[in-house]
Amino acid sequence: RNNLIYNVGGAGIRQREETSLTQNVYYNNTIHNITEHGFQVGASGGNLTFENNIVSNTAGDAVHFGTPYPHTKVVDRNLYTGTNVGEWGWGNHLNFTNWKSQCGCDASSITASPVYASTTPGNPNFLKLQAGSPGINQGLTIPSVTVDFAGVARPQPPGGAYDIGGYEFISATGTPPVVTITAPNSGNDTSVTTTPLTTLAG
Predict the structure, then answer these.
(1) Prior bond of 157 cis (ω within 30°)
(2) φ, ψ (nearest 5 deg) of residue 66
(3) pLDDT in tens, 28-77
(4) What is the CA radius of gyration of the chain?
(5) What is the DSSP string of 104-129?
(6) 8 Å CB contact between 59 and 83
(7) Residue 59 and residue 11: Cα distance in Å, rounded?
(8) Is the pTM of this model over 0.90?
């Protein structure tokens, strides 16, 4: 949970068939710029939950399931980019509509640009959402995920909805105050208006 996975030469997250865990959970990750599938699951990989994740800019499909897949899967409230969202089995590349039907999942997920504030590693806003992102306030409330990648409390603002991906968007807005300064020995008052706060990517 709350991972930034980027610039990977292979799958972003791969749950192999050898996985012996009975319940595998993937919450609020951002997976970006991957040379294969964003999220890949072997046919015998165990039960899983994959929710509130962003998968963007993948050379392969956003999600791939090996088949037959006999385990319980909960896959929803994710944000994907690209034309071929999923691959069910091998060679069966599916658009979003067909993927949802074949997988039986992602009913409330989204296909759109995440609208990142930056995609440049090292930039302080790298892979953070900016105003207007379709991932803002679209996630499920997950009680075990109380903060984001940066340690910011989820959700923002408190009492709202979770964002999709590794970061919560923080909006800081305000009305410019008016400060009155009395000029010494002049008998005159001078009003100074401060610069208003702007919306920030958090």
Answers:
(1) yes
(2) -70, 150
(3) 999 999 999 999 998 776 789 999 999 999 999 999 998 888 788 999 99
(4) 22
(5) T--TT-EES---BSB-STTSTTBT-B
(6) no
(7) 10
(8) no
